[in-house]
Structures are given as C-alpha cells and as structure tokens.
Amino acid sequence: MVVGTINWDINLFVKRFAAVGEEVPIERIERVPGGKGANVAVAAARLLGRGEAAFIGALGKDDIAQKQLEILESEGVDTSLVKVVSGVESGQAYIVIDENGNNIINTLYGANLEIRPEDLEDPARKRAFEQASAVVVMDPPIETAEKAIDICHQLGVAVAWSPGTYCVLGLNRLGRDFSKLSYLVLNEVEAQNLTGLSNPLEAAENLMKKYPTLSVVVTLGSEGCALASRRGVIKAPGVPLQKLGYSVVNTVGCGDAFLGAFAAFKALGSEDAEALWMANLAGAINATKSETRGSPTMDELISLRRRVEEAGLTLEEV
Predict the structure, then answer these.
(1) pLDDT classification of 110: cutoffs 50, 70, 90
(2) pTM, rounded to two decimals
(3) Contact call for residues 281 and 301 (beta carbons, < 8 A)
(4) CB 145 within 8 A of CB 166
(5) Nearest to 273 by CA among 211, 228, 241, 309
(6) CATH assignment of 2-16+27-317, among 3.40.50.620, 3.40.1190.20, 1.10.3720.10, 3.30.70.100
(7) Using an 8 Å Cβ cutoff, are 219 and 212 in contact?
(8) Distances (CA, A) of 309 to 26, 268, 312
(9) Sheet of 135-137, strands arranged across
(10) Alpha-carbon distance 264 to 45, whole Å?
(11) Tell me, what's the pLDDT at 318?
C-alpha cells in the first residue's frame, strides 16, 4: 500500500532549458498521469498483479480525478481508499524536459494537501494497513506521513518512507520517526539536505549508525543506488543503457519506479540485496520511456537483468 500524491503531469519536451527571460520552443507536449505516490503504486502493481497494490491519496472533484481513477484501476491498483474532495483542483505538475532527459518540475499540490491524519483512522483505511505486507509513505502532508508511519509501527508492518522535499526540515523534525521505520529512501540531494553531508554513502552510513534499526536506501541517478544497514553497505552500479542499446529519454519518475519495485520485491519476500538489484533495473528501464510511469512489467525486468548480468554487472559490498 502507498500513501502519497497523485498528479496530472504536463510534460513539455525542449532541446534545452530557457535562461531567465528567454523563450524556447516546445518540441512536443504530453499529458500523462503522475504523482509520486500513484507512480509507486502503479510500479508495484505491474510487478505484483491486479489487486495487490492499493493507493491512499486525494483528488479534487473534477474531470482529472475521473481520468486518474480510471487509469489506476486499469493498472490494477485498488482505488477504494482514495479521498475525493469538493472545491479544490486535483494535483497537477508542469514538467520541462530537455533533450538529455533532465527535468525541471513545477507542481500545484491542490487536493494532495487534503489527505489528513484522521483520514487514516477511517475503518476501511485502518483495515488496509492491517492487511498490508508492506507500506510505502511518500509525500502526503507531513503530519499525515507521520501518522501513517506511527500506524505501521504499532501494527508491526514494514514501512518505507521517502520524505522528499521534507528533508529540508532536518533531523530534529524528521528523525523522531526514523526509529519506527524499516527503510528510509533518499536521493543524493535529499541525503545532503537531511544530513549536511555531500557524500550520499557517508550520509546513509551516518544515519544508519544514529538509528541502528533503520536501513537507508540512497538512489544515485545514473550511478546506481546503495543500501546501508547493520549488515554493511551494498551498492548496485549504474546500468549502461546506451551500451545495451537503449536511449535515455526522460528521467522523471525513475525514483518512483525504483521504489515501487523495491517495495514489490520486499512484499514478495526478497532479501534486501535482491530487492535493491531489481529496483535499480526498474529505475533504469523507466528512463528509456517518455512517459512518467515508464516502470516495467516483470518480463521486461527479467529481460534487462539477464542482459546486465551477461555484461558482468553485479552488486558490490562497499
């Protein structure tokens, strides 16, 4: 189960980003479903099958909401826990993507801010927490994220938190929940914002030492990813997509594909190393697709794994 945001993405593809005050032409435009929480739920559903992933979030009572719910249901995600709110627009993201796949994102959170801590105490949502094999908390309002983590801790359910922009609040605010987590998931910028350390692996190790029950996952973009736990640090190398015949098209959503796959493989009973390896490949596949939700099916993932391992890439201990 995933608790987080759902947005309608307007992707603007350009050759290069505009300087301040400059106008550049848009090569093409795509309007697609997105939002970190919904992306993670879809990524997990594509690997686990219909009805095996659920999403908790909020939408406005508008045309976007109807499209979003239909798309989630077509992907096999359980939408019965989604809150629909009158008088507010569904979330939207305006994403500018250059020819190298880099991106700039401007987001209208809208209804995403309407999922409240008390909503998680609703009998249906509380029952869903009890039945979940794993919960991913993404980027709902901070108080809602903390409530979700607390519920999981009380129930003994494995929970991963990707706090995203909340990392700027620092350890004094976020750290009080870390002892309740199974996994903390950060990218390089978030790791630095949270710890003040520019080396993400050092940041992950320091966090793990400060919170001994915590496992810290750090995504490293094209350089792969790493996981620090009491058993040490393991690193998955970056996938050489171009050497394998792929092109990098759009890096938006790669972290979501990564986390959806990581959670899915943990729900399937995989050890951390296996889940990290498969998640690393899922994020790489996402970069080869123009759509935000370019996460793979199980067949696509297994196919890339075979090619990558034939090329001699493996997990390594750091």
Answers:
(1) very high
(2) 0.93
(3) yes
(4) yes
(5) 228
(6) 3.40.1190.20
(7) no
(8) 38, 22, 5
(9) 77-78, 53-56, 2-3, 135-137, 159-161, 183-187, 215-219, 224-229, 232-237, 316-317
(10) 8
(11) 75
